[in-house]
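Late entry, pyridoxal-5'-phosphate complex.
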Amino acid sequence: MRGDKLGDFLDNLVARIADYVDQSHNEGQKTVDYLPASSRKKTTDLSLPLEGHGTESVLDDIDEFLKQCVKTNRPEFMNPLWGGLNVAGFAGEVIAALTNQSMYTYELSPIATLIEKAVIERMMEIVGYGEGFGTLTTGGSNGNMLGMLCARQYADPMSSLNGFDGTKYVAFVSEEAHYSVLMSANVIGIGHQNLIKVKCDSGGRMKPESLLEEINRAASNDRVPFCIIATSGTTVRGAFDPLREIAQIAHDNDIWLHVDAAWGGSCLFSRRHRGLMDGVELADSICWDAHKMMGLPLICSVFLTKNKSVLRSVCTHGDSAHYLFHDDTKDVDLGRYSLQCGRRNDSLKLWIAWREIGDSGWAKMVEKYCDLSGYLEDLVNDSEHLSMMSERDWSNVCFRYEVDDYDLNELNTEIRNRMMREGINLVSRSNIGDDVVIRAVVANPLIDEKVLRSLITSIERHGSEIINNIPAEF
Ligand SMILES: Cc1ncc(COP(=O)(O)O)c(C=O)c1O
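Prediction complete; structure with ligand written out below:
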């Protein structure tokens, strides 16, 4: 497509984008039209044709997609650990797709390489790493895997060459760690069983004394403790493990410490909240998702380590790619520090968004989200039927509807299901221990006190309708 035709097409596309963004501000609009997959499949044409439908169909297909998708930019979207639309980040995403750089070599992505290095170096400074390096990954899950792979390499420097018998090696995580650590244990070759879950305190934070007990127990059973993964911002409760004490244990026992700060890493911008990650600079590696609280479009996630040479030896497979990597650019080619070959330019959007608002803008964002979640907590505490189900350190608010003589797990599951079918306020159904809780997350720039009040009203209404046997109207 060229010339006028391309111009018209792009105008039409931009009009749709503007409309989609505008709709996020319209009150009373749904976040999703809930339909089970079986019905949606019947009512949507998903077929891939033998002969193409032509350019017109591109806009029709986009219209259909925009109509049916979950409107993650609406303020009532509080289900996962992200939401809203960062416009500068969106612009960066569009330009990244337009220019289609691949991040393996400086030769093929010169400016993008320098931008990515600038982002990594700045984030290292914020974490407090005087030296080291990092890479952008496909998310916190793979950031955790890379952390464990570095730990493995540190414990057994020949493992990337000779392979690894992981049956004796054990790693430690809190019992509230993200499920991706199981995947990591599988991929690096220790298996799920060798991932030891350490007890947490009542707020969901790893207990250092239990960690030490588990390490000693493992060592006395002839196992090799080689990695601790601490979490800064757990998925359900937003709890922060005590990094300084955990780091001391890691150092005393010469164990690699990786911090999963996929969710909580942004606290480092705020003087008020930075203390939650006190001691992070003592850890060996960290992952931090800019696509969570910082609101960058998925995917935007950073892995950092103090120990550049370990990351480099994990990634030496790149040296065999003679068609990509050459000696004269070996100091700048980012592909030598990545598990990927072709890799998206995810740093551009972060760099653009960061330059727009600066560190101070991120700090304000963090503080606003924490203040709003404090407001939500107050609303829960003021409500006759709602109770907080955990202390709150971050912007996760976990609570439930309570009434006598009811199975509260069933009741709260049904409240959440009705909300999902209604399609306005989207929150998550999670578990804390055996209890079903409603988890609302403040990580969306359009959330304000009014939105939070209407969330509470909606939960109270559904709860009351269920206990009074009033059927849902949708
Ligand atoms: C604490 C924590 N770590 C890691 C992840 C995984 O991140 P990603 O979805 O970017 O792979 C999540 C996702 O919610 C998380 O909450």
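The longest helix spans residues 347-382. Will revisit in the morning.
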